[in-house]
Amino acid sequence: MVDELIDWDAVPDDPIYRLTFPHRDMLPSQMFDDIGKIIDSKADKATLRAAVDDARLSLNPHPGDQLASNVPVEDDEPVNGLQHKYHETVLVFPGQGQTCHSYCGYCFRWAQFIGIADLKQAVDTPDKAFAYLRHHREASDVLFTGGDPMIMSTERIRNYIEPLLAPEFEHIRNVRFGTKGLSYWPYRFTTDNDADDLLRLFEKAIAAGKHVAIMAHFSHPRELETPAVVEAIQRVRATGAVIRAQAPLVRHVNDDPSVWSDMWRKMVNLGVVPYYMFVERDTGASSYFELPLRRAVGIYRDAIAAVSGLERTARGPVMSASPGKVVLDGIVKVGGEEVFACRFLQARNPDNVGRPFFARMDEHAVWFDDLKPAFDEPWFWQQ
To answer: How many whole angstroms from its chain centre is CA 286?
Structure first.
């Protein structure tokens, strides 16, 4: 990222620099000033740490009811390190994978990295995940996430994958890995000491009948342009694994339809499937990166209109909110009133998947919680 992706002649406005390097505007000004005063007062480390922890807790570290509603409960005990929000998909946070090759300023998993134990999600051993999956045969997909599971050695990854190939887990059809590694450290798939072993593990899982999906995070087309990334993508695809790519739409980095259309063209040319354009989550530095939803709809529409049908597979703009993944299909007039046309792509309650609904137009809305039902009717899932 430092050597290959940032144009240092364009700093500080280079998009990859803005994506990965802290900027004072990422914090509310009062919070920045308050912490600065504590530092200037030469307070002891414990005092500073307490103030920083309090500040972090005010930045909505786990949006969308992740800890309150997504963590499953077995035998009256929460299973820390798993999330089971959607009927068919279980998220697994491997304990050894809760760091990253670099840190994006918009990362909505930032609470994993700050050293507050009560906020961190992690399974200490794979056995906890397997025990849960044995009893939940409705689950067809396992998503290893973090952090970044590709920070782990292949041997550690193998401990999570090979048991899933046994007949008792035949209900698990799809194995996913959420990773920024293809962009920030493509050598994980090319020249790292165990890169070949990792690719053979993908092949073994596919030969056993699993669909292996690399859920890559590409935020800007420049991330797809280095020879190392191109080689890594080729090697992963050669195993039979599918690479799907997603990222949030954020200010300072990719808030331009031409950036997205260029990125989607490059992806399809390399064999990567455009998957999601997300809306920046309401957490951490969201005030620095967020865009009005009305503008997000326009950027998506202009970007998708500029590419071919094969390059139009990315759904967006999508908000992963507490009740589910909500896509903004557009802005329409109903009864003379301008409204957002919305739809659930995924939902906590499976009966809501695919159901459309309307939200009142709000020029200042930046997230799902800012929206109100159109026509003064309650949200249908709250009735």
So the answer is: 14
Are the CB atoms for 188 and 181 separated by under 8 Å?
yes
DSSP symbol at 378: P
325: Cβ–Cβ under 8 A, 6 or more apart, which residues? Answer: 318, 319, 344, 345, 346, 347
How many CB atoms are closer than 10 A to CB 30?
A: 9
From the list 326, 341, 317, the residue with the least C-alpha distance to 247 is 317
Residue 341 confidence (pLDDT): 97
pLDDT in tens, 262-317: 999 999 999 999 999 999 999 999 999 999 999 999 999 999 999 999 999 999 99
Q: How far apart are CA 374 and CA 78, in angstroms?
A: 37
- 284's torsion region: left (phi>0), alpha (psi -120 to 50) or beta? left
Q: For residue 242, give every residue at least 6 positions away whose Cβ sits within 8 Å of its Cβ, in sequence order, or none.
A: 211, 212, 213, 214, 273
What are the tens digits of pLDDT across the range 186-205? 999 999 999 999 999 999 99
Continuous H helices in the chain: 15-20, 29-40, 45-57, 126-135, 154-161, 181-184, 195-207, 227-238, 257-270, 286-289, 293-305
Q: How many CA atoms lie within 13 A of 218 on its CB side?
A: 35
> Model pTM greater than 0.90?
yes
